[in-house]
Amino acid sequence: MLEDLSTKHHLVSDLFRWPTSPQEWNSCRITNHQVHSYHQNGYVAGIQMLTDDQVETLRAELDALTNPAHPGLDLLYEYNSNESTDPATTLFHALGAWRVSPGFHDLLWNPAFLAPAAQLLGAPVRFWHDQIFCKPPRHGGIVAWHQDYSYWTRTQPMAHLSCWIAFDDSTIENGCVHYVPGSQRWDLLPITGLADNMNAIKEVLNEEQKRKFVPVPIELKKGEASFHHPLMVHGSFENKTDRPRRAAVINVFADGVRSASNDEPLKGVPPIPIGEKMSGQFFPLLFDLDVQAASLLGPRASRPQ
């Protein structure tokens, strides 16, 4: 078994550089227009997150993790060589790569991720969990329509944020993510399956939601990312091209979110009693808005609520 990197709450490699001045932090921020677009539509896309060299490093680490003989898999929260229910398609999906892979560990402390996350949450950023997805060429499986928070009700209140990072050009043809703009204002929907029928969600929508169910494809260049709200309805279709569609997701929440369950929050992670703050080894504080980035968002009154 490899060293458990969850004990290290700082950069452990030279893949990213930590800013040393307010000016460097400001260069990582997104625009006020992008922040407004997120709050209006439930997502913002096309954020530059990784250089080509950083993408190549993370691709190599992902390829290693897809090997079922990888020595660190016991530390992962979930590992699905194929989460697809259709044997003709493949969807690789795993949680917990940050614990075993230096690049995926340090991805959490990427300033290009942390600055926008702080702006969109309007609060200190605390880690929830990571995910990696891989749709292989020609037979990559679907990710069915869902809301992330429907899987996360063991944490409350809902003050969460997800960042989807492309390791390949993500297009309509190879199964890019689609968002349903405005669905972040819908109530929490029942879970209808993560890798099953793309039409299953329509069985739990009311008539108004069905009328407003107009998905928008989010095409990204490799190294770009999108952020979305925890109630955003999203999914992705098959990869039928001759190239893979690989991605990572970082899920965070505002510091202060508490446990709403006495069960394990993630497989192998000690329970946090109901009502206690989510914190500790597995849920580190990534970015303190007030201490590290007071100049990033400007006066408190200007921060998004």
Rounded to the nearest angstrom, the distance between the terminal CA atoms is 43 Å
What amount of the residues lies in strands? 15-25%
The CATH class is Mainly Beta
Relevant CATH superfamily: q2cbj1_9rhob like domain
| Succession of helices and strands | HHEHEEHHEEEEEHEEEEEEHH
**What is the helix content?**
10-25%
Return the CATH architecture: Sandwich
Q: What multimeric state do the chains show? A: single chain
- Helix-strand makeup class: alpha+beta
Low-confidence stretches: 293-305
Describe this structure in words.
By secondary structure, the chain is α+β, with helices and mostly antiparallel strands. The protein has one domain (50-67, 75-291): q2cbj1_9rhob like domain (Jelly Rolls). It is 19% helix and 21% strand. The protein has helices at residues 22-26, 32-41, 52-65, 102-107, 111-121, 207-211, 289-292, 294-297, and strands spanning 43-48, 78-80, 92-95, 125-135, 143-146, 155-156, 160-166, 177-179, 216-217, 224-228, 234-236, 245-254, 258-259, 285-287. The strands form three sheets. Strands 1, 2, 3, 4, 7, 10, 12 and 14 form an eight-stranded antiparallel beta sheet that branches.
